[in-house]
């Protein structure tokens, strides 16, 4: 674990189990702000004062809430569904969103199954009758699950757990999930149906375990309900809106379907006069799917741990909007991330024609698993130095896509003779006219390596070969290869009071045979813009740029 030099502030914006909150408070580098029950407006005001926020489904993290994200770096959902979080807004602001996908699977499956059993046996109305002094046994004749066919819509974690339970109850199970490419599932015990509309007429009971999105909203509507068997029981413990609520009420009233067990609603809580609240054929619970002692304890601790692990740079667990990013890099991967960041900084000032395509070539088996992170590292530097808005590993791919910048990483597990290697190639638009740039330099290419000492080295820039450790204040000069250039540059720097600590020179013959040189000066202080301008106007100097790179602690 990291040392407690920095304290991360974690905001609990929803009701979380005590165990997770206690865990946060036990950490030397974390403080807890418990604001369970906070409304959206208040949340928007304080969210930026915290490094992480943990929520359940009780609070909406809208684009408005994220308008001034301040220090916020991670939103942790203590649960599964993230439909209460504006993922696009979070991604755009560079905020990681994580969930605790597995911690509440069994609990939620049990709740869906409880609804199924209770609805089939009319437990709700029977209980109400008894409480009101009645004893009406003939009115509450139920139906047995064994021998019936259950349709499971969405065959992910919860859907499969429900199917397991249904099989144990001797039910036949049919599944529909467009992302399940098989004829059968669970060792042939579950038949997969390709089309949702084919599933509905075949089942006696149907249960939904899908996320709410444009494809699932209203997927069970009146038109589809009309194709069902009249004794169909509908269970929804996924998200309100997957089953059209108005259509459901009509179908229940008209006997198109028999009964419904609902844990989730389009608006939560549903309005006081919502027809499902007190419908004789509906058994309803107030979004209790994940509400067991065990699941709440697990999601609360998991969410707190994932948020803090990310803030500490220990890894990303349960990412919803950060496919492929890793912060728990191995030493060699971390060294390459640092090298690639420096490489992108170095060629940055030479990119004067805009960016169209970025290609990262990675050689070496150790780098493959970090490819996405390394690509995003290069892009973050290339775009971050050019855009006003914050750019980081989370939002950079979306930003590049928005600007039609194509990014590609080519990995090869065959190490070069010199070991691992990274090559970054940046291309501008083909039709951009740039008379100041030599045709050989229209594509910018930089090659770097990390050896056993884990120090970053640049070994080539656009055909100029070298072996240089990129660090500190540097000046890049491209010049005609003729006598007197070094002396001239030295005297301009001397007059400006700039000490040259180190110099690397490399020559290259152009396609027409002209020889040019690239001088890389390591200087003790950054040059004033006027010094750079002065040197760039000297005869024989083709390009001049200054770059500030981080120092290297290990020497
Ligand atoms: N009532 C409650 O308290 C709880 C509700 N949930 C909800 O349960 C749902 C499922 O959760 P998990 O099983 O953990 O998620 P999951 O991601 O493991 O499974 C979802 C499945 O739905 C499938 N799917 C996506 N689009 C589909 C479509 N158009 N038609 C059919 N299938 C589709 C996916 O391929 C995936 O297999 C989520 O909506 C979640 O929010 C989760 C926990 C508690
Ligand atoms: O995890 C989920 O998706 C849930 O629906 C559970 O919601 P909750 O955390 O109980 O507000």
UniProtKB/TrEMBL annotation:
The processes (GO biological process) annotated in the record are:
L-serine biosynthetic process
Q: Is tRNA-binding a UniProt keyword of this protein?
A: no
Occurrences of domain ACT (ranges): 474-555
EC no. given is: 1.1.1.95
| Enzyme class per UniProt | oxidoreductase
Pathways involved: Amino-acid biosynthesis; L-serine biosynthesis; L-serine from 3-phospho-D-glycerate: step 1/3
Task: Tell me the Pfam families matching this sequence.
Answer: 2-Hacid_dh (PF00389), 2-Hacid_dh_C (PF02826), ACT (PF01842), PGDH_inter (PF19304)
Q: Which reaction does it catalyse?
A: (R)-2-hydroxyglutarate + NAD(+) = 2-oxoglutarate + NADH + H(+); (2R)-3-phosphoglycerate + NAD(+) = 3-phosphooxypyruvate + NADH + H(+)
State the function annotated in the UniProt record.
Answer: Catalyzes the reversible oxidation of 3-phospho-D-glycerate to 3-phosphonooxypyruvate, the first step of the phosphorylated L-serine biosynthesis pathway. Also catalyzes the reversible oxidation of 2-hydroxyglutarate to 2-oxoglutarate.
Which family is it part of? Belongs to the D-isomer specific 2-hydroxyacid dehydrogenase family.
Q: Which domain of life is it from?
A: Bacteria
Q: Name one GO molecular function term.
A: phosphoglycerate dehydrogenase activity
Name the chain's protein: D-3-phosphoglycerate dehydrogenase
Q: Which parts of the chain span the membrane according to its record?
A: none
Q: What range does the record give for the signal peptide?
A: none
Among NCBIfam families, the record links this protein to: PGDH
What keywords would UniProt list here?
A: Amino-acid biosynthesis, NAD, Oxidoreductase, Serine biosynthesis
